[in-house]
Design goal:
- It is a single chain.
- It is built from six helices and no strands.
- It is an all-alpha fold and 100 residues long.
- The chain starts with a helix and ends with a helix.
Length: 100
């Protein structure tokens, strides 16, 4: 469960957005990940809902790739949600903001 929470952080984009999606405080997630607090049934179901997987698959670890790092939750190298776009020129919006 803790690895799944770490993995979701990468999918969602940070601890605070994950905490908001799970309906808990960010420090609650930290306590759970450090082992200072148990994973509750409510948290497990919230993780399953946010991950859009069955609770059985989540608890069995079937949802994550076997190559997902159990310590940090980093997805496998071939995990890509979207391509990163690098622009050589700043956008018009950026140019206007810099001029101010």
């Amino acid at each position: 469960m803790r690895t799944a929470i770490r993995f979701l952080r990468f999918r969602i984009g940070g601890w605070q957005p994950l905490a908001d999606a799970l309906g808990v405080q960010a420090d609650t997630i930290g306590k759970v990940l450090r082992g200072g607090r148990d994973v509750t049934a409510n948290l497990a179901y919230s993780v399953a809902r946010v991950a859009d997987v069955l609770i059985d698959d989540l608890l069995a670890g079937a949802w994550l790739s076997p190559r997902t790092c159990p310590h940090c939750g980093r997805p496998p190298d071939d995990f890509h949600d979207e391509e990163t776009v690098v622009e050589n020129e700043p956008s018009e919006v950026i140019r206007r903001l810099v001029k101010r």
